[in-house]
Amino acid sequence: MTLRLGIDVGGTNTDAVILDEKNNVLAKAKSPTTPDVMTGILNSLEKVLNESGVDPGEIKYAMLGTTHATNAIVERKNLAEIAIIRIGKPATLAITPLTGWPEDLREKLGKHVYIVQGGHEYDGREIAPLDEGELKKIADELKDTNIEAIAISSVFSPVNSEHEEKAAEILRGALGDSVAITLSHEIGSIGLLERENAAILNAAVTKVMKNAVRGFENALEEKGVYAKLYITQNDGTLMSADYAVKYPVLTIASGPTNSLRGAAFLSNEKNAIVVDVGGTTSDIGILVNGFPRESAVAVEIGGVRTNFRMPDLISIGLGGGSIVRIVGDGARVGPESVGYRIVEEALVFGGNTLTATDIAVAAGRYKLGDVSRVQHLDKSLVEKAIAKIDAIVEDAIDRIKTSPEPTPVILVGGGSILLSNKIKGASKVIRPQNFDVANAIGAAIAQVSGEVDRVYSLEQLGREKAIEDAKKKAIEEAIKAGADPETVEIVNFEEIPLAYLPGNATRIRVKAAGYLKA
Question: What is the 3-state secondary structure (H, E, C) of 383-422?
Fold first, then answer.
């Protein structure tokens, strides 16, 4: 058999599944997510292997959705020593790199910041020649530091990446391959400051992801699993381990995305709203053609404004471990939560804390634990708490919808037992089999993708050639990320005329996806 292992790290639990070649679930397991992340992954791996009883050698693919990069940025821990190089003098001197960043993060990452001459216009014409002499001086200076990664950004590099690539060539020649180099045109889209921010964050977490990948590979080998490793991205697809080490920032928000992809697979619904309820929070997102809808606005990560792709999500402080309190004549649910301690602290599990799970059991929505321990709860309190839970979710669904028309709603995540099978504004409510591990299933069944987002001057190139070039590059990116060339196809295409730029400028976004290369 050819088996797949899927593991996804959530805020409360780390879930794992093993699927057969027909994507049937052979085993599933949950373990509390640990502060160091890796221990929780190891515990889930051991549990799912023991439950399945399969030969570990039959597992050919392992997919991991991890919060390593997110945690490093939010907690300001284990970040690499980096240098920041902007190519844009004299045009970009008015606003320096790291402007608007939180003070603590700016102090950590802003020790080596440079702006050199160069950059391009929106149509690819050179603003000024690249100052290669200055770059060589910077490289010599960095030799005497502990630099582990470099972020390079250039004006309009998504249109013409020549200066970024030349700068990387010079720095790599002087500093060697041990220093990770991030090029902003490979991460973000048009908009220098946000794209530069994304590149800086990516460079800062390359060390974290490298260690995470190495740790996961060692854990698999220790259990006799010699599978090819893939990491989940935040667009619902996979990338090879090497690709993930190069672009770790693309893993941010991959957990909710895995749940959306798992929901699409388990329900056979391609266009729907997904409510993923965990132990502490719930994420609500929208499926479009089976993939998460992307956010159309700039997204903040750890207090930093960026413009690289992110799923369009609403997160609310509601989960299975949410603490319930009486407030006046009503009830308050969350945002405080017992989290993974729910199995010790919730009433139905023998604890002394009233949680949302206890309310759901008392209301008859789900049978779990010792039902007798919640039978004493005041009926009025239960009704008020249930009404509050429903109102919180229905309000979030209403906020993320783009149409008043009723839409299918898919409930996933272990905490989705809180919710009713009747939700206002839903054309139907689906709670599929294995809903509790949809995130790990989403990781295990994911495809591999490549994406291009750049501005073309149609006066110079012509519309057909511009579209052809963008599609070709997206397919190449998917293949580089590990997709089988025979299965790659275009799954999303977007063309946006930019009326404020001359030359009949058009922004073209293309995503290609394919199945894993055997």
Answer: HHHHHHHHHHHHHHHHHHCCCCCCEEEEEECHHHHHCCCC
Do 197 and 493 touch, CB atoms closer than 8 A? no
Bond from prior residue into 129 cis (ω within 30 degrees of 0): no
Joined together, the tokens standing for residue 472 give: 């070709």
Tokens of 262: 């798992």
- How would you class 22 by CB atoms within 10 Å of its CB: exposed for 0-12, middle for 13-18, buried for 19 or more? exposed
Distances (CA, A) of 115 to 92, 94, 443: 8, 11, 40
Q: Is residue 180 a contact partner of residue 206, using CB atoms and an 8 Å limit?
A: yes
Distance CA 108, CA 13 (A): 30
Q: How many CB atoms lie within 10 A of CB 47?
A: 17
Is the pLDDT assigned to residue 499 strictly greater than 70?
A: no
**Rounded to the nearest 10 degrees, what angle do helices 254-267 and 438-445 cross at?**
90
| Distances from the Cα of 388 to the Cα of 319, 327, 385, 394, angstroms | 13, 12, 5, 10
Name the nearest CA neighbour of 106 among 242, 220, 201. 201
* Radius of gyration of the chain, Cα coordinates, nearest whole angstrom: 24
Tokens of 430: 């689906």
> Whole-angstrom Cα distance, residue 124 to residue 119?
9
DSSP string over 292-333: EPBPSS-EEETTEEE-S--B-EEEES--TTEEEEEETTEEEE
| Alpha carbons 483 and 237: distance in angstroms, whole number | 10
Instruction: Give the 3-state secondary structure percentages of the chain, helix then strand then coil, rounded to 5.
Output: 40, 30, 35
**What 3-state class would DSSP assign to 501?**
coil
Asked whether 307 and 198 are in contact (CB, 8 A), the reply is yes
How much is the mean pLDDT over the chain? 88
Which has the closest alpha carbon to 418: 321, 273, 316, 517?
A: 321
How many C-beta atoms surround the C-beta of residue 434 within 10 A? 16
Find all residues with CB under 8 Å of 214, minimum gap 6, and list them.
none
Cβ 234 vs Cβ 254: under 8 Å: yes
Question: What are the Cα distances from residue 69, in Å, to 23, 78, 228?
Answer: 29, 10, 21
pLDDT value of position 118: 93
* Cβ partners under 8 Å of residue 139, min gap 6: 170, 171, 173, 174, 175
Contacts 24+ apart (CB under 8 A), 70-74: 70/251, 70/252, 70/253, 70/301, 71/37, 72/204, 72/205, 72/208, 73/105, 73/201, 73/204, 73/205, 73/252, 73/301, 73/302, 73/304, 74/302
- pLDDT given for residue 189 in this prediction: 77
pLDDT digits (tens, 9 = 90+) for 398-447: 989 888 889 999 999 988 989 988 888 889 999 999 999 999 999 998 88
